[in-house]
Amino acid sequence: MSSSTSTGTTSTVNIRRAKRSRTRRAGESMFGMLLLARNIVLTLVALLLLVAGGWTSWQTAGPALTGEVRGTMRVAKCTEERCAGTFIPTTGGSSQVRKVTVAEPVSGTVGERLQVALRPGTKEVVRTGPSGALYGAVPFGGSLILAAVVVLGGMRMKRTAVTLGLLGVALVGASWALLTF
Question: In whole angstroms, what is the distance from residue 23 CA to residue 36 CA?
Answer without folding.
Answer: 20
